[in-house]
Design a protein that fits this description.
Blueprint: E1 5-10, H1 17-26, E2 31-36, H2 37-40, E3 59-62, H3 76-95, E4 100-103, H4 105-113, E5 130-132, E6 140-148, E7 164-171, E8 175-177, H5 183-192, E9 196-200, E10 223-227, E11 233-236, H6 262-273
Helix pairs in contact: 3-4
């Protein structure tokens, strides 16, 4: 069983890369590097000794933040730059079966790239789903209750219990949506393939049913995270990297909790170590 090397990609505007690095280190990864897109693209402005390729790593993670200021829409500019500069690298990485994860802005990037849900191929020309503005029309920064789906091929949640998870959210564009004319058919396909990984729920574990504040953004079918059909590419809107220590829970002085975000990173590290 070899070492697990993790690439946490960043560009200007990301702000959760160090949190993700800490999460992977706590999960047992052997080497976690914060790598700028320009290093992977071998930009002339980057010294050659800092050049990297995705083949140097076993896991790719795209963190949260406001990449390029989300000037067009969440994750769109970052996704366009990845497609232009790293298209072949990321396609090869995904098709090799190695884990790829994206949280919040990273989830937006994976949807913009078309890697999720991935029905038209690894890196299609157009996205198949989107994360759009929250129904309430404003940014949400608080904790939300999630529950893992019982049946999913997602390798990122093999260590995650089916109990309620209390995970922080911080987003203004987190509503998971399909094109209106195909939404019903697309949702059925997503559910049939087990590609829904997390849904928003009420504190008693019952479905949020689209009800605010339990569903914080209006996502169709209370979707908080999905994976591709193979299960190695995964994205979610809440921030598990900010739920890896009991002290990060809002009620830590009253109710001891097991860090619910850590098992997500442990699942990916364990899977990568076995490749």
């Amino acid at each position: 069983m070899g070492q697990v090397r993790v690439c946490v990609m960043r560009i200007e505007g990301t702000n959760r890369e160090e949190d993700a690095q800490a999460a992977f280190e706590a999960a047992g990864a052997d080497r976690v590097e914060l790598v700028h897109l320009k290093q992977l693209a071998h930009s002339d402005t980057v010294p050659q000794d800092l050049h990297r390729t995705l083949d140097d790593y076993d896991i790719l993670f795209i963190p949260g933040g406001f990449s390029a200021g989300d000037a067009v829409r969440g994750g769109a500019i970052w996704a366009a730059r990845i497609h232009a500069d790293l298209g072949d690298q990321i396609k090869s990485f995904i098709e090799s079966g190695r884990p790829v994860g994206g949280v919040c802005n990273g989830f937006q990037v994976l949807l913009e790239l078309g890697c999720l849900p991935g029905w038209a191929g690894t890196l299609p020309d157009e996205p198949e789903a989107a994360l759009i503005q929250n129904d309430i029309g404003r940014f949400q920064s608080r904790f939300a209750e999630l529950k893992r789906e019982a049946s999913t091929p997602c390798i990122w949640v093999s260590e995650v219990p089916e109990d309620n998870l209390l995970v922080p959210i911080a987003h203004g564009e987190g509503k998971f949506a399909f094109a209106p004319d195909t939404a019903e058919e697309d949702l059925k396909r997503l559910e049939a393939a087990g590609q829904i990984v997390f849904r928003y729920v009420k504190p008693d574990g019952s479905p949020a049913g689209g009800e605010f504040p339990y569903n914080p953004n209006g996502s169709i079918a209370d979707i908080a995270g999905i994976c591709n059909e193979r299960g190695n590419v995964f994205g979610m809107m809440p921030h598990p990297e900010n739920a890896i220590d009991p002290l990060q829970a809002p009620d830590w002085t009253r109710r001891p909790r097991t860090p619910c975000g850590l098992p997500i990173f442990e699942s990916a590290v364990r899977y990568a170590r076995g490749l």
